Amino acid sequence: MFHPTLAKPGQKTLADLDEYRYGTALDAFASGKSDASMGLDHVKTLVEWKLCVLNFGYATCADRAGRPLHDLHTQYLAPASLSLADICVLVAMESSDPL
Amino acid sequence: MKLVSSNDSSFTESTIQKSVKHYRENADVPAALKILTQLKGIGPATASLILAVHAPEDVIFFADEAFYWLCSGGSKVPIKYNLDEYIQLNERARALAKRLGVKAVDVERVAFVLLRQSSEDGGANTDKAPTMTRPDDTSKKPPAKRKVSGDEAGAPLSLRRSKRSRRA
User: Fold this and answer.
1) Which helix (H) or strand (E) holds A85?
2) Residue A38 contacts B, CB cutoff 8 Å
């Protein structure tokens, strides 16, 4: 069940970490976007995101963010470039082998 | 995190540069990951995350959800987090991304939505395995595809219904 609590002072919320993983980091390091070099601090932030998501699950991290899990799905996970519903339809209905 | 933090800053930066350069010149994911795993506390999963940030079109992060979805038909099988498993995952993610015309990072995010939605329906951190069709697996089991699709009681089915009702 969802038990909203806020992140501790100084602790990154899931929203912060997701924004970094899918926004800031991609803008900085993805192919051809910039010449920035990834350093140890960047790696540590990515590992923090990974630990948050994988070890504790999005539900726990959602608690930290103090927001319902569904909102997090909608805001941070659904790809903005295409309709999530469209992907789900394709995946659910697809019968051909992609390979 | 402690082990990761213990890496030397300049060695970390140069190792990542070397890995990314090797990937961009050779498109050799396993070799690029092996370079990254020279860093302390960096295994194949975290290495894939670092590389995925640099190549979101073609490299997927080794997320549990993505592996369950693409490599085990939605079942929460034990994951060894080794290179062989990741290679299998990345190949399947690339195939799916190519077929749908999306990026690997999009596949990753959809995996989170699909698998986490399933957990949310059954309670967070549940061990109940979501019954989902692996996207490339239906051709191998054509008679079961509608039944399997119907078993997708989580997000995919509800979203599909929602989409259809809007279209109607």
Assistant:
1) helix A84-93
2) yes
Residue B142 with chain A: CB contacts under 8 Å: 95
pTM of the shown model: 0.70
Tens of pLDDT, residue by residue over B35-45, are 999 999 999 99
CA distance A28 to A24: 6
A33 interface with B at CB cutoff 8 Å: no
Among candidate residues B120, B6, B43, B159, the one with its CA nearest the CA of residue A91:
B159
Max CA pair span of chain A: 50
ipTM value, please give it. Answer: 0.72
Which residues in chain A show pLDDT less than 50? 1-6, 59-60, 62-76, 81-82, 93-99
The per-residue pLDDT of chain B, averaged, comes to 77
Residues lower than pLDDT 50 in chain B = 123-134, 136-168
Q: What pLDDT shows up at residue B84?
A: 96
d(CA B42, CA B65): 20
Who contacts A98 (Cβ-Cβ below 8 Å, separation ≥6)? B92, B95, B96, B98, B99, B135, B136
Structure tokens belonging to residue A22: 């899918």
Sign of the four-CA dihedral A45, A46, A50, A51: negative
* Cβ atoms of residues A25 and A17 within 8 Å: no
What pLDDT, on a 0 to 100 scale, did the predictor assign at position A85?
55
Distance CA B105, CA B93 (A): 9
8 Å CB contact between B159 and A85: yes
Tell if the CB–CB gap between B125 and A57 is shorter than 8 Å: yes
Phi, psi for residue B30 in degrees, rounded to 5: -55, -45
